[in-house]
Amino acid sequence: MDNHEQIINDHQVVFVAFCADWCPFSRRLKPIFEEAGKKFKEDHPESSAVFGIVDSQAHPALNDKYFVNKYPTMKVFVNGELVTKEYRSTRSVEALTDFVKQQLQTAMHEFSSEEQLMSNLDRSKRNIIARFADSSSVGYTNLKKMSSILKEECQFFIDSIVFFDPDTKDEQRFTGDVSNYDFLKQWLTDKCIPLVREVTFENVEELTEEGLPFLIYFRDTDKKEDDKIFIDQVVRELGDQKASVNALLADGKKFAHPLRHLGKTAKDLPVLAIDSFQHMFMFPDMNQLTTPGKLRQFIMDLHSGKLHKEFHETMDQKMIDLAKFNAENPEGHDHGTAKDGEARPPSVKPGHTSPPPSVFKELKPSNKRYSLLQKSEL
Fold first, then answer.
1. Are 93 and 101 in contact, with CB atoms under 8 Å apart?
2. pLDDT digits (tens, 9 = 90+) for 282-304
């Protein structure tokens, strides 16, 4: 695979499956993936897309380079760049070929008038607007490249480079050199991927793989104006903690099980908690969320181990409170519990001598779908 970088750079889309022969899921995928690549080439002989399979046992260095920690892992490169989101959907010829076709589609929407732009602009989403006099310029090429990578996070329109923030309603104008790809990439990534994201049953698996503790604001979706209070506090107090904690919004009615392990129900929303993937810790007083320094101290206490220590110091009272809660709220009578057939976190019973166990660690990639690698195997 010494030529892998050349292949990635020479094609608009490169779809790669990292497999291992000892992995039963890899063995099932390989013939399907090979058939998908063959069919795509037959149906689209002129397209700049290629399917590839990496034998991860023969090329272990590529595992480290591209952050592979399970088999099979399917990653996509667009215009020479690794797209952050892996392919996690259906493993069929049709689904795989459809995915590649979607990656080939342009992510930039052109418009001929201000009226046309305004009629297509969805201000509930994150929007990038750019204008170029010359579509053959380096700046245009750079933006087109980034739009392909960030098209799931942002909508791109051709005008002057402006970012519309759906949360603050602010307009932020790019003032740098568009021919400087690295600078443009950093600016667009910062704007398109917000500091606070939404966790859903569809994206929770990939969020867990980022390996950062979750700071979860369980909210009532009927009161979205309250979201801004949390988002503003995160921006003010945790801007430098992006690499150490994942700030997330969660629908408190859909994620009823994690609330139950904290002794809460949908009646108590909003609730703020940390899931460290070992234990869950609840923000002690929601009335103090906007008190300067309180949210930051909560995160610092997680990193220092103080939250775990304080739990044990007050364990007896917490166990009394939890027993009372369970007596008053028997399992199956949670407000907002998911209906039969809907996805939901598994039920986990709190231990008697530890903080409530992590629920979200149970939503990491499943060993029923992947062969998971331990760190010693990487």
1. no
2. 999 999 999 999 999 999 999 88
